[in-house]
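Lab notes, practical 5.
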Amino acid sequence: MTYYDGDDEVVPELCGVAVMGDEEGGKGDYVGLPGEEAGDWDGVGVGTPRRGRFRKWRGCAWYWAKLIFLFGCLGVLAAACVKWVWPYLMDNDVIPVLNWETTTFSPPVLAVLVVASLAIFPSLLLPSSPSMWVSGMTFGYGYGFLLCISGMSVGVSIPYFIGSLFYHKIQGWMDKYPKRASLIRSAGGGNWFHQFRSVTLIRISPFPYMIYNYCAVATNVKFGPYFLGSLVGVVPEIFVTMYTGILIKALADASHDQRALSAPEIVFNVLGFLSTVAATVVFTIFAKRKLKALQKEDEPLQE
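Output from the prediction step:
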């Protein structure tokens, strides 16, 4: 830093610069800023604040201590769930439902029920995950995916056309909450590909998809990019939910047979679960970043 004296001459201002002492003492002193306390600087060359470094290391250690404590508590909670809660749920809820399902409905009837529920539930704002679980448990990834994508193709279309009947009311609601609606409004501008990409990212992001089904038409998104973008965007959700159902069935079978999972089964299930969680997090972060970028691009156009 510098300042100007009375003669307009630039004079450097020294901050924490050590001044070497005489030969007898062997120690120097330093020129400090007002408000500094002794011992805040190392006293060698240009000083480094000791207190600042101590606070930094203390904050870092405290952060890692809290993180380790949090993961420790989560580990204990997970172990307790696996030991006591999970067997109870398996024996009293999951296994009876699976037995009732397999003895009451044949596979063709279950296929019709899965498609029908995925087509109707989004319009009623009901979750579709149980239907995807059943699809994965009964039909596996191949046929299960075809059933899910067929049902959801109808499930995302019906709310779009119902929302068109309440176009002005939905727009009025979006005008009352402009910040919340700015995310889905960004999908309504641009060309066909821009709308398709925006709808796909909204489906992958954690935005409530059942609400977007009704609000999409009020953002002036055409049905073509909305439909195709919705189908592409729900693919990760379908596979994640089906995998969850298959994992639940595998654990239920092991609990019903009173046997423990083998080492390869444990490794496969753990790796599969971790991969599923990691993929979900990566897709969500990627979609949120892309949506923010699209919002910034569309802000000048909306203004």
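Observations recorded by the TA: The longest strand covers residues 2-4. Residues 135 and 144 are 5 Å apart (CA to CA).
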